[in-house]
Fold this sequence. Notes:
The structure is a homodimer of 414-residue chains. With 414 residues, chain A is α/β, with parallel strands linked by helices. In chain A, 43% of the residues lie in helices and 24% in strands. Chain A has 3 domains: 2-171, MoaB/Mog-like domain (Molybdenum Cofactor Biosythetic Enzyme, Chain A, 3-Layer(aba) Sandwich), CATH 3.40.980.10; 178-252, 2-Layer Sandwich (Alpha-Beta Plaits); 258-413, Maf protein. In chain A, strand 10 (209-215) and strand 11 form a beta hairpin. The two termini of chain A are 43 Å apart. The relative contact order of chain A is 0.08. The model of chain A has no long low-confidence stretch (mean pLDDT 92).
Amino acid sequence: MKAWILSIGNELLNGHTLNTNATFIAENLFNIGIDVTKIICTSDNKNEILAILNEAYKETQLVIATGGLGPTTDDISKDAFCQFFNQKLVFNKNVWHNIGSLFSKRNIPISELNKKQALVPEDAIVLKNQLGTAPGLVLRKNKFVLIALPGIPFEMKHIFENEVIPYINKNFENKSIYNKTFLFSGISESLLAEKLYDIDNILRKNNINIAYLPQPGIIKLKLYYKNKCEEDKLINNFISFVNTYLFDYLIYDDDISLQEILGLKLIQANKTICTAESCTGGFIAHQITSIPGSSKYFLGSIVAYSNEIKTSVLKIPSVTIKKYGSVSKEVVEIMAINARNMLKSDYSVAVSGIAGPDGGTKEKPVGTTWIAIAGNNFCISEKFIFGNCRIANIERTSNTAFVLLIKELNKIIK
Amino acid sequence: MKAWILSIGNELLNGHTLNTNATFIAENLFNIGIDVTKIICTSDNKNEILAILNEAYKETQLVIATGGLGPTTDDISKDAFCQFFNQKLVFNKNVWHNIGSLFSKRNIPISELNKKQALVPEDAIVLKNQLGTAPGLVLRKNKFVLIALPGIPFEMKHIFENEVIPYINKNFENKSIYNKTFLFSGISESLLAEKLYDIDNILRKNNINIAYLPQPGIIKLKLYYKNKCEEDKLINNFISFVNTYLFDYLIYDDDISLQEILGLKLIQANKTICTAESCTGGFIAHQITSIPGSSKYFLGSIVAYSNEIKTSVLKIPSVTIKKYGSVSKEVVEIMAINARNMLKSDYSVAVSGIAGPDGGTKEKPVGTTWIAIAGNNFCISEKFIFGNCRIANIERTSNTAFVLLIKELNKIIK
Lengths: 414, 414
């Protein structure tokens, strides 16, 4: 089955808001076998919304729309939907009750404008919004279905998972998509594509799609297919190929993040970790702790952004910093060793680099980064030269640190 | 002038990749006065791309497309563009030279597939890609212009800023957009909208648009308008209104992030800061250090994720943790005071909470969060009950900490 996603909001078209909603919906529809063939962002403009609904009515069977259901004057989606589906707005007691209890729980006075949110198209199926004031709506015209959701991401997600997925599974026939993901590091996208050129062609001819998804420091390769039985043999051939010819670059063979892989490996090895961060400023610790349950293996971090803290807290001799500079093999290794001793973890990772945009020199240009890993009786370190973009450098340093840690853990797991 | 953004890539439609490119382009076009009226994501499918180009040709004058210019088999954008603009692909020496020098600098072998990237439509203006292998392309058919860029975000951004903006400014007449932004905290979107209801109506009647952009813990309110002279009086009236009736909720009156505001205030007050983080796991430090130049005022952070580190590094007496729990006024205040003493900063912020999804109790449900701020001879703290979503809780804690710090700094600046 095919679907469109319609994202409504001026804030999307003027770049003030990143459209995370469309990506979330697309991924969830994809996983239950619904092909999203188009994502359209349009403004809070009734005529534009109507034009897109008319086109969608001809081209697809399902539209998931988000945005424009709020209480403010720029929220006009409901009017457009009423016109397209030939509906009147009626006051809905349940929705009003939900809004009332939400406001009293948060102890904030209810506003007159919120009454507008209790108005819903007369024939709409109302999807309860447990986290906010605007409910979801399902509207139908012959075989064409529109599901409209509020634009606030966490409200939308909650309704989508609890109401929309069950509704779709009940009302549409769809077939799950299978996928197999590989994570590579240390190889360029083009070289990887060249090595896979022949086998890639065979897969495509057999309805197995292959996608290259480069991210800072890693490449995600994703195969997806609809018929599990028929295509399993080809997938297994591909796995053998990867294990034979690309094993050195293979980090993992499932679609989870590097910090999740690290977490699984640490749990498997029953080891703990800490970080000592300079240029990443806490980002590595944040990435690790974004995973629920990370307290099982992550103890903490010393973010030593200033040299004074490298000396006073991490006990790096100031002569060492003076002699080698804070972005050096010598300093980063002591950071790793001392953080590990101080926080009493099995492993530690330390990073020190020049994230940019300033601070580069001829010998150490912006992007120069040292990463060290310390464990029981060892400390290794490696130098990298990343690029000129501060945010990308921080992300690439973090990903590279995770890859090095995972490789180190693989030594004791296997 | 009006434009469309065309984002090409299966990875966007199946939700594997967040479309940050479209948001970046939209914001940059908006700032130079070009209205993006539609953003369309489509698959790596030649017929789909052609259909959209045909529609765009009728509806708009400029399309910025991204994606599908890479070396792999799923990259077919160039074929579609050649067909639409009736062009042949020709080998471009400069592009090939650029690819060669890029690979030799990184010391990786050049792949046969990269040769494909040196093929460009015969009449295209080539926009140099200094950071990657796929160049940008400008193609024209009568008054209709397509600018095609690679999909890798940092490459796209670099070409956009260095080549596309100058090209647009040179070739199109466009008029800058003015905007005025306010950041509010401690008020709901609906109550804010109600308080602004009358003045909002007046602004809209006078071609001043107003957008409510809620983010975790704050609401961004943005006015934008095209005629500076004519509308300045109305904008000034609005500013007076906000200062008179909404001053208690106003955090800042410009469009910068909370961590940038904090940075400016710290520089203005000539003060330094550190953080002691439990539930945010380094996120606050990361947010602060995502700003270039933050080393001027940020010294470092102790991420004390485990209770052992709260005791061993931050010297919280273990009896205090046992008696009150680590998510408590008592613990978070000692965290703030001790981190400030240890890292020798003027201010410190400490947070301890239950980010979820597990770890909540009846007395302290998921979302319970304590935030403390310590300075010279004072320590204040406040309890918050956020929601059930781990990532949102981390973000909301960080934003709330920034708001409290900014308010504290305002006391000594004014």
